């Protein structure tokens, strides 16, 4: 028997549907009510946990076939790797789109309810879910031109014949903002003649028509299906572009926000453990708007972090990132940031808007180009183009030509900084072992993003990680070790407090305190290639009282002494006061 939905929950869903679809709302609420229980989801919803997240929560971003070997599916190989190497270090595995796809390395979905045969089966996915929480992508702005939905559109078969946006090519769409320079409209031959369909990202990724309520219910069904397969975090890919309105920039429309709120409402009804994560790689103020009033996304990517941190470490100047952190507003309620430095995409630079002067921005672009970055540009409404993404691995971006060891320390400093921030850390698979630029892949595909998407042969990777003198193996061991240690410190709870201390141009301290206020960890970072001393007592008040500190990262006890604590070039410390 299906557990009754409260009147307050139904009223909330009705308000969302009325905002989106006006006079059809009452009928759609009835349709929604009958959807509950599909796949067994919502029949007996689990109780909401008193703890949505804590310091043990770390998300791993990976492709389904990131590591592979003969004789077993890539998903099975990934499961073995994660269990053997990452148990206790990460809590959630975000498997990037593992559905049948036709382009964009998964983000042009052919069938949302199937696992790509080459990757494995749903049983493989569920097996991974036995040891880790699972995160899936809900690619809701577009689908593949080779999908059954689009084929039905071409043939005029309902309901999918109304799932896509036809547009007169003479329509003035000059206000539309998007991160591509390819044609916005793509000519398509259908049973009824030629038409032009909306394609924000590529001709193979056809935008979906969210003004059609049948499409909404298609995705609600997919949402319930994913929950039945064990998903705990739903990443809404490119959600900012979902709702189109001619004459606007077609970004962040009020209806788009309402869709996100509705998806959260549905999750709270059928499985309150599920988190909504929005992917909106845009300027910071626009990005955080997806927190809503605590009723929208549970998590938002902290998109300004990767480029700001990169700039600070390449210039030795932490002023800009410190100022940003001091002004960063944290949402109340069940909401937090997802802190990351790298993902399957490049490093987005639009989120630097208003945070970094043009001169400093140009310095950053030149520095990463020197290290092999492919800079992707977007089309602006005025016809100009500007950088929007740096295609380079984070390790290569922080490398030091001629000094591999210094580059390694700078890279680890960046990773430990991201792990220190208030919020939930997300770690890209390649960051764990500081994978360098995959130029060979770019040459093969012609796609700049391939530089950060190398796939590993399992035996080759295991051999690399087992080598005692391998710099990548050393980084992997230190990284995973710190992740496991971090899980033991409640001061890193995403709901704990954070204070920022600037100790000169190159030293920054994050003071993290637990939700109960009974533990503090002082995260100290040297952003320069020179040793820096944190002197007592003037520079940093906590050093006035404690004579000794335990450094969580090095697992050593330190004495501050009269001269204070000296940090090596790019060293990071997590200091716990000891009496």
UniProtKB/TrEMBL annotation:
Residues 57-460 form the Glycosyl hydrolase family 13 catalytic domain. Keywords: Glycosyltransferase, Transferase. One of its GO terms (molecular function) is glycosyltransferase activity. InterPro entries: GGa_phosphorylase, GH, GH13_cat_dom, Glyco_hydro_b, O16G_dom_2, Sucrose_GGa_phosphorylase-rel. Gene3D superfamilies: Glycosidases, Golgi alpha-mannosidase II, Oligo-1,6-glucosidase, Domain 2. SMART domains: Aamy. Substrate binds at residues 104, 142, 235-237, 344-345, 449. It comes from the Bacteria. It holds the Pfam family Alpha-amylase. One of its GO terms (biological process) is carbohydrate metabolic process. PANTHER family: SUCROSE PHOSPHORYLASE. This is Alpha-amylase. It comes from Ruficoccus amylovorans. The lineage of its organism: Bacteria, Pseudomonadati, Verrucomicrobiota, Opitutia, Puniceicoccales.
């Amino acid at each position: 028997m299906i557990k009754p939905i409260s009147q307050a929950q139904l009223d909330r869903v009705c308000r969302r549907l009325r905002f989106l679809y006006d006079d059809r709302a009452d009928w759609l609420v009835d349709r929604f009510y009958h959807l509950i229980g599909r796949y067994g989801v919502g029949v007996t919803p689990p109780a909401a946990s008193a703890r949505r997240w804590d310091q043990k929560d770390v998300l791993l971003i990976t492709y389904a076939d990131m590591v592979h070997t003969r004789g077993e599916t890539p998903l099975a190989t990934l499961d073995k790797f994660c269990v053997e190497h990452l148990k206790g270090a990460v809590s959630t595995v975000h498997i990037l789109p593992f559905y049948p796809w036709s382009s964009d390395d998964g983000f042009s979905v052919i069938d949302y309810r199937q696992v790509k045969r080459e990757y494995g089966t749903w049983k493989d996915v569920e097996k991974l879910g036995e040891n880790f929480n699972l995160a899936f992508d809900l690619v809701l702005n577009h689908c593949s031109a080779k999908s059954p939905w689009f084929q039905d559109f071409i043939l005029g078969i309902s309901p999918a014949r109304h799932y896509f946006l036809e547009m007169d090519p003479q329509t003035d769409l000059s206000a539309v903002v998007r991160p591509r320079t390819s044609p916005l409209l793509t000519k398509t031959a259908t049973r009824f003649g030629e038409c032009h369909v909306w394609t924000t990202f590529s001709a193979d990724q056809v935008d979906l028509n969210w003004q059609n309520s049948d499409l909404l219910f298609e995705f609600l069904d997919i949402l319930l299906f994913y929950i039945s397969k064990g998903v705990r975090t739903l990443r809404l890919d490119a959600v900012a572009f979902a709702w189109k309105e001619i004459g606007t920039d077609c970004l962040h429309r009020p209806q788009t926000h309402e869709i996100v709120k509705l998806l959260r409402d549905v999750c709270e009804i059928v499985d309150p453990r599920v988190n909504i994560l929005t992917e909106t790689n845009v300027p910071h103020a626009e990005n955080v708007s997806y927190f809503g009033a605590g009723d929208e996304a549970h998590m938002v990517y902290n998109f300004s972090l990767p480029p700001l941190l990169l700039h600070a470490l390449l210039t030795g100047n932490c002023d800009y990132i410190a100022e940003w952190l001091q002004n960063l507003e944290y949402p109340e309620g069940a909401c937090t940031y997802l802190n990351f430095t790298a993902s399957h995409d490049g490093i987005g630079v639009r989120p630097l808007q208003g945070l970094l002067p043009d001169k400093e921005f140009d310095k950053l672009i030149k520095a990463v180009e020197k290290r092999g970055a492919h800079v992707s540009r977007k089309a602006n409404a005025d016809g100009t183009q500007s950088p929007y993404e740096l295609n380079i691995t984070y390790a290569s971006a922080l490398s030091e030509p001629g000094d591999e060891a210094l580059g390694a320390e700078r890279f680890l400093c960046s990773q430990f900084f991201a792990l220190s921030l208030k919020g939930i850390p997300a770690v890209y698979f390649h960051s764990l072992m500081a994978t360098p630029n995959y130029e060979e892949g770019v040459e093969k595909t012609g796609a700049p993003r391939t530089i950060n998407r190398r796939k590993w042969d399992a035996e080759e990777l295991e051999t690399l990680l087992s080598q005692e003198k391998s710099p990548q193996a050393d980084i992997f061991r230190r990284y995973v070790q710190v992740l496991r240690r971090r899980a033991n410190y409640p001061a890193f709870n995403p709901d704990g407090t954070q204070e920022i201390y600037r100790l000169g141009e190159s030293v920054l301290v994050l003071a993290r305190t637990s939700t109960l206020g009974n533990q503090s960890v002082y995260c100290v970072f040297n952003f320069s290639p020179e040793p820096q001393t944190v002197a007592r007592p003037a520079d940093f008040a906590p050093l006035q009282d404690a004579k000794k500190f335990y450094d969580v990262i090095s697992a050593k006890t330190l004495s501050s002494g009269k001269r204070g604590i000296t940090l090596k070039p790019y060293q990071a410390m997590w200091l716990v006061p000891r009496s």
